[in-house]
């Protein structure tokens, strides 16, 4: 959909036009549902979350005219909805475990990788990184995704090398914390 057409469509939805909303729904629902399904590996949950997103979108339609890029907006909402869904599931499983077990199983930190497949682990790390403060997130991505050294990162961001090291240490601690939570919930 062209940007001009998209903005006009958003404007009419904000005014309460159900036909325009239908057009938006049929344009984005399949892609949004597919995106969520890829993350959760559950078509049923993906459908529920996608429908909830569009229901909320309609309920809050009057504020849509402030959105510049509806596609980016919808996929950001979807990503956040998936994170919340995973967090709720983890909390629920943790609650169930505490109710059914009197003594938790103790598993070594490095054994967690035997139980969580690579895709789930990647999603969990992505969740942890997305929840980091912007500067820590940027430094972590520069280090791990772009392969930059601490000196290169410090020079690029005009900060002290020790600051880079502190951010990376905290980023790894954040990731370990989330993985430990998963360990507690699932085991």
Overview of this structure, please?
With 187 residues, the chain is mainly alpha-helical. It has two domains: 3-88, Orthogonal Bundle (Rna Polymerase Sigma Factor, Chain: A); 105-186, Arc Repressor Mutant, subunit A (Orthogonal Bundle), CATH 1.10.10.10. The chain contains nine helices and no strands. The termini are far apart.
Question: Which key phrases capture this entry?
Answer:
single chain; 187 residues; mainly alpha; Rna Polymerase Sigma Factor, Chain: A; Arc Repressor Mutant, subunit A; transcription; sigma factor activity
Short description:
The chain has 187 residues and is an all-alpha fold. The chain folds into two domains: 3-88, RNA polymerase sigma factor, region 2, helix turn helix motif (Rna Polymerase Sigma Factor, Chain: A); 105-186, Winged helix-like DNA-binding domain superfamily/Winged helix DNA-binding domain (Arc Repressor Mutant, subunit A). The chain has helices spanning 3-14, 18-40, 43-59, 70-100, 112-115, 118-130, 134-144, 150-157, 161-186.
According to CATH, the homologous superfamily of the largest domain is RNA polymerase sigma factor, region 2, helix turn helix motif
Cα end-to-end separation:
46 Å
The fraction of residues in strands falls at: under 5%
Helix content: over 70%
Query: What's the total helix number?
Result: 9
- Total beta strand runs: 0
Taking all Cα atoms into account, the compactness measure Rg is 21 Å
Overall pLDDT confidence: 83
Order of helices and strands: HHHHHHHHH
Keywords: Sigma factor, Transcription, Transcription regulation
Domain RNA polymerase sigma factor 70 region 4 type: 128-174
GO molecular function, one term: sigma factor activity
Domain RNA polymerase sigma-70 region: 25-89
């Amino acid at each position: 959909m062209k940007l001009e057409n998209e903005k006009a469509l958003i404007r009419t939805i904000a005014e309460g036009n159900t036909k325009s909303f239908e057009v938006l729904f049929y344009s984005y629902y399949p892609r949004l549902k597919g995106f969520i399904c890829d993350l959760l590996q559950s078509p049923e949950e993906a459908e529920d979350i996608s429908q909830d997103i569009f229901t909320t979108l309609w309920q809050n339609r009057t504020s849509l005219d402030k959105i510049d890029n509806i596609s980016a907006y919808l996929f950001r909402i979807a990503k956040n909805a998936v994170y919340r869904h995973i967090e709720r599931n983890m909390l629920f499983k943790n609650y169930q475990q505490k109710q059914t077990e009197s003594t938790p199983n103790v598993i070594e930190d490095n054994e967690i990788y035997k139980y969580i497949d690579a895709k789930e682990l990647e999603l969990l790390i992505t969740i942890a990184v997305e929840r980091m403060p912007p500067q820590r997130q940027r430094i972590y991505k520069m280090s791990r995704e772009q392969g930059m050294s601490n000196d290169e990162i410090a020079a690029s961001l005009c900060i002290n090398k020790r600051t880079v090291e502190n951010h990376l240490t905290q980023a790894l601690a954040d990731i370990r914390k989330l993985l430990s939570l998963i360990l507690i919930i699932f085991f």
